[in-house]
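User: Can you help me understand a structure? I only have the sequence.
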Amino acid sequence: MNFVCLAVAIISPLGAYASAINVNLGTAGTFAVLAGQTVTNTGATVIDGNVGVAPGSAITGFPPATIVPPYTQYAADAVALQAKNDLTTGYIFAAGESCPAANNLTGTDLGGLTLLPGVYCFSSVAQLTGTLTLNDEGDPDSVFVFQIGDTLTTASASSVVFINGSQGDVYWQVSSSATLGSTTSFEGNILAADSISLDTGATISCGSALAQTGGVTLEANQISVGCGTEGSPSPTPEPSTAPMLLLMGAPCLLWLRKSRSVRE
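Assistant: Let's start by predicting it. Here is the structure, written out as tokens:
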């Protein structure tokens, strides 16, 4: 078992177990916008990433919205359907990560907080008013996972910022819907069970708006899947290895936890 788990740790996100485990979005990782029913835009939105919808097929407001080449649209086709399946896998994985009791932020506004890499959870709604600071401790492989039991809402002009020189991966697992207030400057991938709305001028840097069953509504926004000097993902979605890694990694994660508890 030691040898098998070592091999899995090398090829899968389980190597990040000490804090939060990175979420493999598979082919959904190339999508800046992905919806279950509709993608609706108003105004001069700029999308640096693929735009897709499935099983629905409606993508409206493109133009005036533009997609930065070589990214493109996928509507109710095999590519969009695979991305939706990969999104579901990623959503379930993020929701299942272990959240320490000390990181339960239920009832706490995210504004004004400075957080280290890890898993943070809300049993109900999450609110951001002002600035949330993510201290990635200079580690480009740092991971932040936020598990939200209901809606995620940001007030107008709110922001998420990084400190200490790197830009880690951020995932917002939202059990309902997410709304970014006007001119919000956001970071990370929103994985919503229902719908996502970006009010006028809201932006998502190094992230995405991925809605499983509902729609994504845009209004003069900017969304980019590219992360700083790391560059953008390949624009052409490739088959996901997430299901295989989950099957291989789950027993090893249990073994790692059991071994750790024995040592302690």
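Now, to help you interpret it: The chain has two domains: 1-21+242-264, 25-229. The radius of gyration is 18 Å. Let me know which part you'd like to focus on.
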